[in-house]
Amino acid sequence: MLVSIFDKWNIMSEIDIANDKALLKQPSLFPIITTDKVRYYDGDPIIISGYVTYPNPSLPVQLQVFDSKGDLAGIAQSKIQSDGKFSVILNAGGPKWESSGQYEIRAQHDDHIFSINFEYEKNIQSIGITSSDTMNLQEENKRLRQQVSSLHIQVQTLEDKIDNLNQIIQEQINVIYQWVTAR
Fold first, then answer.
1. Torsion of CA 63, 97, 123, 116, to 10 degrees
2. Taking every pair of C-alpha atoms in the chain, what is the biggest distance, in angstroms?
3. 68, 126, 131, 158: which could form a disulfide with 101 (CB 3.0–4.6 Å)?
4. Domain 31-124 has CATH 2.60.40.1930
5. Is the pTM of this model over 0.70?
């Protein structure tokens, strides 16, 4: 008997209840990469997270950002967790982010390459900001980055709790199966 379930990533897995036990079958999916938004401006943090179905924990996820012309605009690495999850925060903008347009993030883990696109808008107009305004904006930017970092930790904590609940559900399915087969 097959039972389908969806995890927090909306990845369908099947539980095969046969041979006196319930076995969670691994989903056969390609890697997933997401960003927290679809549009970014200079200085915005880009929260990149993803999932690899069959992770190799000894290899990091290599990330490359390409501009709208296909030129390399940035690079990063993220350690992959044993459950296949990874995340990293990059800042939009910099010397190689020369123009507004569609940018691509490519992530590579082992032999798998996967990507996602987003819109980047370069600040091209000078609006007469004073040095005092710049200091205030820098302080606000720092505060917001700290909030984003704190929220990222909270999200990770919630994801861990969901993983624990999924494990409990798996254990309960086994108990129910044993109860049904014992009758």
1. -30
2. 79
3. 68
4. yes
5. no
